[in-house]
Design a protein that fits this description.
- The protein has 185 residues and is of the alpha+beta class.
- The protein has three helices and ten strands; from the N terminus they run H-E-E-H-E-E-E-E-E-E-E-E-H.
- It has helices spanning 2-23, 69-75, 173-183; strands at residues 30-38, 57-64, 81-87, 93-94, 101-103, 106-107, 123-128, 149-155, 159-162, 169-171.
- The longest helix is centred in the N-terminal third of the chain and has 22 residues, at 2-23.
- It is globular and about 75 Å long.
- The protein starts with a helix and ends with a helix.
- Residues 14-22 have low confidence and may be disordered.
Length: 185
């Protein structure tokens, strides 16, 4: 009997460890490009039809991974994936209200098995380059004072805290400056 209990305990422990490893978000995210757009220029699949601040500047950060972010949003407890943006130097959180993760046809969330559709998934997030007047958020202006931006993805799983996150993607100040120059043409 004790042998059976021991075997069952080992199998259970193995299943738990396998689930933890399997549920871990990818750690290979890499920035592919940075582009600056106005909020009003977001694609219909990504944004509201009439944004609150249509001229607000946003950085569109396109990134790649060998992992399937749509599967994370569908197969597990996640209700969606969220981007956490911060200033790399100070760690100050930025980009309030722009924390959703998108694929080819819109937000990656629970139930969207393959939002990428045909072709590459086109993973991207929007980062607000200037703060809004929202109580509780820090003021910042990356248009006037560009800095390196650190970005990582987390699942929306409040019952488990924030849950495991991806590796940190760094958007260098130089890439942001180049995107700002290109966006102003």
């Amino acid at each position: 009997m004790w042998k059976a209990i021991g075997v069952a305990a080992i199998l259970l422990l193995g299943a738990v460890l396998a689930a933890v490893i399997w549920l871990r978000p990818p750690q290979d995210l890499t920035v592919e490009s940075v582009q600056v757009v106005r909020w009003s220029q977001m694609t219909a699949a990504d944004g509201p039809a009439s944004p609150a601040e249509p001229d607000k500047l946003l950085a569109v950060v396109r990134f790649a991974t060998a992992g399937d972010l749509a599967a994370l949003g569908h197969d597990f407890w996640y209700r969606g994936l969220y981007a956490r943006a911060s200033l790399c130097g100070s760690g100050k959180t930025i980009s309030e209200g722009f924390n959703l993760v998108f694929g080819r046809s819109g937000r990656i969330s629970f139930g969207d098995r393959h939002p990428g559709g045909a072709g590459p998934p086109d993973y991207h997030v929007y980062v607000a380059l200037q703060s809004s007047d929202i109580a509780g958020f820090s003021r910042y202006d990356l248009v006037k004072s560009p800095e390196d931006i650190c970005l990582r993805l987390e699942p929306d799983a409040p019952e488990y805290g924030h849950g495991p996150s991806t590796n940190v993607m760094r958007i260098p100040r130089a890439a942001l400056l180049a995107a700002l120059r290109q966006g102003r043409r």
